[in-house]
Amino acid sequence: MGQTLHTHAAPGILGIEPYTPGMPIDELQRRLGVKSAIKLASNENPLGMSPKVRAALAEAVASQNLALYPDGSGHRLKQKLARMFDIAPERITLGNGSNDILEFLARVYAGPGRAVMFSEYAFAVYPLAAQAQSAESVVVPARPAEDPMPYGHDMAAFARVLRGRPDVALVFVANPNNPTGTWLEPQAIEDFLRQVPPDVIVALDEAYFEYQDPALRPDTRRWLDQFPNLLVARTFSKVYGLAGLRVGYAFSHPDVADLLNRVRQPFNNNSLALLAAEVALDDQAHVAQSVELNARERARLTRELRALGLGVLPSQANFVTVDFHRDAQPIHQGLLERGVIVRPMGSYGLPNFLRVTVGTVAENDRFLGALKEVLRG
Ligand SMILES: *Cc1c(COP(=O)(O)O)cnc(C)c1O
What we know:
Helices cover 42% and strands 14% of the residues. It is an alpha/beta fold and 377 residues long. The protein has two domains: 20-49 and 285-376, Aspartate Aminotransferase, domain 1 (Alpha-Beta Complex); 51-282, Type I PLP-dependent aspartate aminotransferase-like (Major domain) (Aspartate Aminotransferase, domain 2, 3-Layer(aba) Sandwich), CATH 3.40.640. It has a seven-stranded mixed beta sheet, with helices on both faces. Helix 6 packs across helix 11 (254-263). The termini are far apart. Bound molecules: pyridoxal-5'-phosphate.
């Protein structure tokens, strides 16, 4: 039966290995009967959304007519983003999460004979988006384990590989990268952009942009004028704490935005999500508080994990990726049994690693306590 039902399925779809998300707290409670679990597995903001957003949502649920379709153009949110980043509104595309935008890109630019390039150990959605379009994935070797930016993107290698692959139509660059947390010098990205043919789209995925040290953030505003083939994708899922509502956005040349809009569902952002994103942009104090907590706790986690003899990759994001120098699966399991959900990295080809989202002080203490128990055996 399975074979018959596969007969006319798109060939690319049959090759997809589904994305494995971080385990929801409910599922751990169901599976292991663990009470009061914490989740440090999906890089969500441990402070949650801004209290102002929460209040605006409650107000909207009480007063708005949600029987009406949302504003399919996302006019108000685009106006706000345009003002905040000094970008023309026609250069903005809104997505149901920035994943939505990554998929638009693949649908528009990738396909049989139109390959997609990205780094080894990059975000898992890139190969999925390519595969769904039956496009070949060209995986660029990452930096070696001994590099100062271990497992990070190697932009010189991107340029070299691209020269030999004229079929590449779309390049994904994650900065900072997930699942490694590593980042790129702005100059390395710019040098690469100068070497990319003008008809190859480069998608710079900045999901962790706000967590980056401002001194390390590239001037993408300038690049967008200089490189019409550049797209910059960002999200409200991470520092803005709106992962459950699904809003992402991209800046690009208006012609690229126009193409992305042709494959976008007309109402891909719901009314409450649009409102939440608008209000969230107005509460930069919440963003600053979240970034400050993250920087402090990321440094503490790094210190304490290294003191346990573990490797910690350099991170400019809201997570740390930990090298246990042995199979990390039993450690993952031990943490689950103690109600701490982190992310195993086996599916990324890093079986000795776990990725741990930086939580609140109490959550990080609980993780460290559980980990010490597990390591004692
Ligand atoms: C989390 C993440 C995204 C965005 O996810 P959405 O929730 O769909 O906005 C995109 N890229 C990377 C590298 C991420 O880690």
